[in-house]
Structure to design on (467 residues):
């Protein structure tokens, strides 16, 4: 009996050692296993988003449902679709890749390309910026000897995004509640770790020719971070824009995002956009969604984005010089009708605040308490102890009746600072949040504003159910 057990144990040991050796010394086998695993994780993640009622109708749900397939834009230009598109430009001397999509979709993107173009041989990988939906798939495409081209600021952006991963994950999860509770632990899915071999700065493009095709890479900071670059094919007048324009074209830019990333430089964005206009593209291939090849639409779109951003920038500066407060400017700076443009991604009033704080930083030169570490909310509960809460509720109702929803919300937030509060003010807050949601849906449709308001409504629901 013991002998049989020892024999079985010995066989298992040999099998495990063999598996270990093959896994470690056969890169192809290792890669195949990794891709299978990633494929399964993607299936789970896609189901999680598609079946989550909070995700319904959201941009994220729309993106995760995009079928992964190869779109032939020209005989030598392929776009592998997904949440983040991956691109392969074929030349007689090897291939150039622009962006590498999301890690969990890498297996499906690689498989889709291999069916159409099995002999792919990438010598250069160009990464438009460090966000995970553009660099996540990199490690699956990577081969020794590849030229890895990024903006000179790429590593710094990658560093801070990695160091603040937990903080940013929690913020993103508030807005996108279908995300898993913690960042992935699996090495394969971790963000960061990309080591560029060639850096491009804002002073001059990096140019090379391969198989008769000219490639020009421009560092254009200011859009989705300071490390944005774009690829320009001068012979074709095609621009690979990465995330320069965000998920829609044309739309007002996210000067800097309420999700909580590093400040972006508004004027740098304007200069970068002017550079794109000077290139005069006849086709824009973004790393999200479809290529745009209508020249009139491109020219009109670029003109409007530039005009709208310049207008908001200049009006904010004018207002600052005139002594107007940031809130006054957030209320009054509007886009003229001829520059009216989608605000689903970036919102004009938030851009005003971003520009104001970019130039003026954190001290608004108003309340002395702003200089110190005791917030106003620290006295709210004491205040509630001395005021007549019935009168307070009446005042909230008056503001709501007058459609002064934000004044009502200020009072509501004072009452709700008391975490144990149970009463009608929670219902008042729901009325205001639903009104703000209705306004957002009827006007800008700004996705971040809608995510936030839904998050607050869901929280209130939980608080009401707990009563
Ligand atoms: Zn992106």
């Amino acid at each position: 009996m013991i002998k049989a057990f020892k024999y079985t144990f010995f066989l298992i040991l040999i099998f495990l050692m063999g598996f270990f050796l093959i896994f470690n010394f056969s890169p192809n086998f290792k890669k195949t296993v990794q891709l299978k695993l990633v494929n399964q994780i993607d299936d789970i993640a896609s189901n999680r988003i598609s079946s989550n009622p909070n995700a319904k109708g959201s941009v994220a749900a729309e993106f995760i449902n995009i079928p992964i397939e190869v779109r032939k834009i020209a005989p030598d230009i392929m776009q592998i679709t997904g949440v983040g598109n991956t691109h392969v430009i074929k030349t007689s001397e090897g291939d150039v890749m622009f962006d590498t999509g999301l890690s969990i979709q890498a297996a499906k993107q690689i498989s889709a390309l291999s069916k159409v173009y099995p002999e792919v041989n990438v010598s250069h990988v160009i990464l438009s910026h460090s966000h995970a939906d553009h660099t996540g798939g990199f490690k699956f495409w990577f081969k020794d000897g590849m030229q890895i081209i990024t903006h000179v600021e790429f590593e710094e952006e990658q560093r801070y995004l990695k160091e603040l991963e937990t903080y940013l994950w929690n913020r993103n999860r508030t807005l996108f509640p279908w995300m898993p509770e913690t960042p992935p632990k699996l090495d394969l899915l971790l963000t960061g770790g990309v080591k560029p071999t060639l850096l491009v700065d804002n002073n001059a493009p990096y140019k090379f020719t391969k198989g008769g095709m000219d490639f020009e890479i421009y560092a254009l900071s200011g859009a989705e971070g300071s490390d944005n670059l774009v690829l320009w094919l001068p012979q074709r007048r095609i621009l690979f824009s990465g995330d320069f324009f965000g998920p829609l074209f044309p739309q007002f830019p996210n000067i800097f995002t309420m999700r909580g990333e590093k400040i972006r430089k508004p004027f740098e964005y304007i200069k970068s956009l002017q550079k794109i206009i000077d290139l005069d593209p006849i086709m824009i291939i973004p790393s999200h969604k479809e290529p745009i090849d209508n020249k009139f639409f491109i020219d009109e779109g670029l003109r409007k984005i530039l005009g709208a951003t310049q207008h908001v920038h200049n009006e904010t500066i004018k207002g600052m010089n005139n002594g107007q407060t940031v809130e006054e400017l957030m209320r009054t700076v509007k886009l003229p009708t001829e520059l009216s443009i989608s605000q689903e991604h970036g919102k004009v009033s938030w851009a005003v605040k971003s520009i104001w704080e970019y130039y003026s930083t954190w001290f608004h030169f108003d309340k002395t308490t702003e200089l110190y570490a005791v917030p106003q909310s620290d006295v709210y509960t004491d205040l509630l102890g001395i005021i007549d809460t019935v009168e307070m509720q009446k005042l909230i109702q008056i503001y709501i009746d007058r459609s002064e929803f934000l004044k009502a919300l200020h009072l509501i937030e004072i009452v709700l600072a008391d975490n144990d509060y149970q009463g009608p003010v929670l219902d008042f807050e729901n009325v205001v949040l639903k009104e703000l949601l209705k306004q957002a849906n009827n006007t800008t449709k700004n996705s971040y504003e809608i995510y936030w308001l839904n998050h607050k409504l869901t929280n209130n629901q939980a608080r009401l159910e707990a009563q």
Notes: The chain is about 50% helix and 15% strand. The chain has three domains: 39-298, 307-360, 371-465.
